[in-house]
Amino acid sequence: MTWFTDRSEDGQWRLREWLRGLRQTVSDPFAKRERNAPVRALTARDALTGWPWYVLVFAGLGLLCAFLGPFGTFSDMAPLARLAYWLSIFIVNCLQVLAALALLARLTTDRWSLLALGAGASVLASVPATAEVALLEYLLRNSNPLGGLVDIFTKVLVLTLAVTIPILVIRARLRTSAPPVMPAAASGPDGAALLKRVKPEVHGALWALQMEDHYLRVHTSNGSDLILHRLGDALADVAGLEGLQVHRSYWVARAAVTAVERDGRRLVLVLKNGLKIPVSRANVTAIKAAGWI
Questions:
Q1: Cα separation of 52 and 162, whole Å?
Q2: What pLDDT does residue 15 have?
Q3: Residue 240 CB neighbour total at 10 angstroms
Q4: What's the Rg (C-alpha) of the chain?
Q5: Domain spans of the chain?
Q6: Which regions in the chain score pLDDT beneath 50?
């Protein structure tokens, strides 16, 4: 009996923790959760990751609606026509929701809350979906839908919201619950060979490498020097240091970064010496995964 009570209390505690995390997932913006929990903000690439699962969920709901026949479709349509009607609506709308999520994630620079992102994507996707439903109404139900476009839009929006937001919330909760992915510890040269190429007065902690044509500018804690060296070879020289190539022309040491700023839609790393280094879009995910921002 004691064992059963202990298991019951443990289950209740886990349920309370899960619900607490779910409330935080819904209410907190991505940027805030990013600082307080091991989860990355939803980017355009994230929104499209795992898209087959979204399609399967929407297709399953389409099959359910084809079986139940809501909104009068059970009595007005033959079984095959009803199946084509609902599968077409849900699958096409799913692809439109994914595209809207990716677009909004990029335009809002990943700062919107889950509810706002899901609602905005649902509204955007429901506009073309209304026209598509109207076309299906005309082709499969022989009705003239032009007089009821507002009613169609309302029903499409409600269905889209009812599916999109729960999927986003559950997915974000699973990502929040997952253990953080820690970058592997670097091993290799610590930059000593590279420092031998610069002037002695510049020797110090390596902060950044900057490619300038066929030359390389080496930034250290004591200044900078321009040497004849390729960035690709220099990256091998600093493989043992904690740093990342954040741009095709720049490598930055983690210890040198004091702040992260935004210049429009572009991220900029601010170093201890005041140098500002741009981060290419292709490398934003890498620096987020490494925990730099």
A1: 19
A2: 59
A3: 14
A4: 27
A5: 15-177, 192-289
A6: 1-9, 24-41, 176-186
Q: Are 267 and 279 in contact (CB under 8 A)?
A: yes
Interatomic CA distance for residues 141 and 129, integer angstroms: 17
Which parts of the chain fold into alpha helices (H)? 2-27, 30-36, 44-48, 51-68, 73-76, 79-107, 114-140, 149-177, 192-195, 231-237, 281-289
262-287 exposure pattern, b = at least 16 Cβ within 10 A, e = fewer:
eeeeebebebbeebebebeeebbeeb
Q: For 6-34, b where at least 16 C-beta lie within 10 A, e where not — what string?
A: eeeeeeeeeeeeeeeeeebbbebbbeebb
Region for residue 155 given its phi and psi (left: phi exceeds 0; alpha: psi -120 to 50; beta: otherwise): alpha
Count Cβ atoms below 10 Å from residue 139 Cβ, excluding itself.
12
Lookup result for tokens 């490598």: 251
Structure tokens at 206: 């390596």
Distance CA 38, CA 53 (A): 23
Query: Which option is the CATH number for 192-289: 3.40.50.300, 2.40.50.140, 2.40.50.1020, 3.40.190.10?
Result: 2.40.50.1020
**Model pTM score:** 0.46
Structure tokens at 274: 């005041």
Residues 6+ apart with CB under 8 A from 43: 105, 106, 110, 284, 285
- Cβ atoms of 250 and 210 within 8 Å: the answer is yes
**Residues 6 or more apart in contact with residue 227 via CB below 8 angstroms:** 197, 198, 215, 216, 217, 218
pLDDT at 2: 38
Integer distance in angstroms from the first to the last C-alpha of the chain?
49
